[in-house]
Write a structure and sequence with these properties.
Layout: H1 7-15, E1 31-33, H2 36-45, E2 51-54, H3 78-82, E3 88-90, H4 98-106, E4 111-112, H5 121-134, H6 138-161, E5 168-176, E6 179-183, H7 188-195, E7 208-211, H8 213-219, E8 223-227, H9 228-234, H10 237-241, H11 250-253, E9 257-260, H12 272-283
Helix pairs in contact: 5-6, 6-12
């Protein structure tokens, strides 16, 4: 038996009733967003009114967590998306599986992918501007981009004033099976650490790789940043310092292990300048400038 609903049934689910969400507010559109970067920009623009569901990776701002989720953006189901009756799907082409996207195309649900890639500061600003035009929030988009420029200018000025460039290790999930999922120089977080005046000692073509405790120990970082999931699972800074490979590092000995939000490090958006400034405070805590 086909585990997917027939296309006709899905079509009825999409168009067979009036569009209202849980608070009974009517929507001009019913938008499903499958990109965490797009989701944050929607809220920053004040254009979230018609957003009715997001993918599981969209976790910022906090109020977005009140919306229904339709699964992880690379493991979607047509039924889950159809159940919220979308009239528009936003995605950045990092979605799947392919057969689900084909099903959604067959249902003729309009989809929108913005041209700007948002992979660095210039293209992130282009993305904000493009989304601002699309949602008729041009003035807000310009304001967001101006603030981003100001924050990044402040961050770069601070970076040039620091006399050291600490080694920073970003551990994404903590420990599992005696391996650590860590972020490399090639990642968005790697760029942000560099902008903040630090350096990631782990090279690699991929943004994230698994490392053993021995490699963590030999890297001997000055600062360890642990993303929220792993940090919260361990329960306390003291527990983090006892992890194999971490326990012998300068970061553990000097208690320079800090919790960071994953969503602040994995894409570039309107708050990136703010986040780089926060990283500087963690990386260069107590350090005098030149």
């Amino acid at each position: 038996m086909n585990r997917y609903l027939p296309i006709a049934s899905l079509t009825l689910m999409l168009f067979g009733c009036r569009f209202k969400n849980e608070d009974r507010r009517e929507h001009q559109q019913r938008i499903v967003c499958l990109s965490k970067q797009y989701s944050e920009i929607l809220y920053a623009l004040g254009a979230e009114r018609d957003l009715v569901a997001v993918d599981l990776s969209s976790t910022y701002p906090p109020e977005i967590k009140s919306l229904p989720t339709v699964g992880y953006h690379r493991a979607l189901s047509a039924e889950g998306i159809a159940s919220v009756k979308p009239t528009l799907i936003l995605h950045d082409n990092n979605v799947g599986p392919e057969h689900v996207m084909r099903q959604l195309e067959e249902l003729k649900i309009p989809m929108k992918v913005f041209d700007a890639k948002g992979v660095d500061i210039p293209t992130a600003k282009e993305l904000v501007s493009e989304m601002g035009r699309y949602f008729h929030r041009e003035a807000r988009a310009e304001s967001l981009n101006q603030k981003l420029d100001l924050d990044m200018g402040k961050a770069f000025a601070r970076t040039h004033a620091y006399s050291t460039k600490p080694k920073v290790l970003v551990i994404h999930f903590g420990r599992a099976m005696n391996t650590y999922l860590t972020i490399t120089r090639a990642s968005t977080a790697g760029k942000m650490i560099e902008w903040a005046g630090g350096q990631i000692p782990i090279p690699g073509e991929r943004g994230m790789i698994q490392l053993s405790p021995e490699v963590i120990a030999s890297a001997d970082p000055d600062v360890i940043l642990l993303t929220d999931f792993g940090y919260d699972r361990l329960g306390s800074p003291e527990q983090v310092t006892t992890l194999p490979g971490v326990d012998t590092t300068r970061a553990a000995k000097k208690r320079r292990i800090h919790r960071v939000e994953e969503h602040d490090l994995v894409y570039i958006g309107p708050r990136t300048g703010e986040n780089v400034l926060k990283l500087q405070e963690l990386i260069h805590a107590g350090e005098a400038t030149r």
